[in-house]
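USER: Please consider what follows.
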Amino acid sequence: MKHLLLCIALLCPLAATAQDKPAPATRPSWPEAMLATRESCQKFIARQVQPTGTFKPFVSELLTPDKPLQQVSVNVAGVDKLRLVGICEKQTGNCHIWGEAKLITKDGKEVRLADLKPLAIRVGWGSYMVNENWQKHSLRIGERTFAHGIWVHADNDICFDLAGKYERFEAWVGLDADRPLGAARFKVLQGMDDPSSALWAQLSRDFPGECKAFAQDVGNGREREWLNKATDVAIEQSVIAHALDSAGPIAQALRSELASLVAAKASPSDSRWLDLYQRTRRCADALGSTASAEPASLRPAIEQLSKALPGRFAAPETLLQELAPLEASWRKCLPAVAKADPESLKQAAELQRRVQDYRRTLVLSVAGMKAFVDSWPAVDLIAEWQSQFATLQHDLRHRDRFDKHAPETLRPESLVVPSDRDPL
């Protein structure tokens, strides 16, 4: 008994130590890590617009087509690196001009900024241009034309090495009169420490798969823009929509979630945006290139083919009987797939393969179709037709997006207008 009590006495401190020991830190989810990283980036940006020494950063008003122009005059005495930043806050397609941008030395000598080579350049589209815009027109903001200056597409961040040689920086900033769209804000900052590249590199090391997919879906290197700008959820909605295009039959349920977030006006800091994107992308990746194979659309297709091709469409009753178990399997599988359950995603991928085989059987059931397809042995005609139809469906689903960007079109005569016949 004494030995037992002694053992208990000896073990008690160990037990207490084990209880007192903090639990290992839980690794944050990808959405949590993304939002925490963006918060860090936003804090850095907030510090950048605080005065330091004699330098007071410049932040413009929100410039729009109705108010496209603002004058800039900044004391840059002692500044080593000067950054000119342009951020598109509403609508895309912003083209920015720094008109008659110049640096002034202590003895009054003026140096055109267009004559200096930038130390670093980041533009949202195209390239950094001097003294003319992308159409080789003169630089013009509103009704004012400038003899010299720089032209860049939003979002942009241009850094110049001043080496402390200048006293003032002066310019006129605003929207290019050839494309006065949306709303933009301009900043004059010092230093070239933009942490977004380093922060994104760290995120990519911690979450390589998720970050690679996000970068591909956001396009044009805009993952850094997501870190630098937390004013809206335009990028979140864009990447979710991009992933939904490949999510196949599960897309409808996920679109309902997206609509709920939009209706609730969920803030940019709400993790549900990135959680929905992550689940949607996992579904799209699991379903692969066959994601357009939706069994729910096959039953009406069979019925319509029977009516449209009487006598040429073989055994519709048999095809409908074979379709029933596929439909039932989808209905059972989809709720778990919407949650990106790994096992259900595997089942969904297998069901997609079976549905694709069924669709092929359906096409070949039309009299004469097999002989026609076999006459083109070098081409998988059925797969090509399905791919073209999926592209057409995609464009029709996003007609509102085409309408939104139509005013930005250089040649309006190339647009498909509402009066054109709907191909479906």
Remarks:
- The mean pLDDT is 84.
- The longest strand covers residues 81-90.
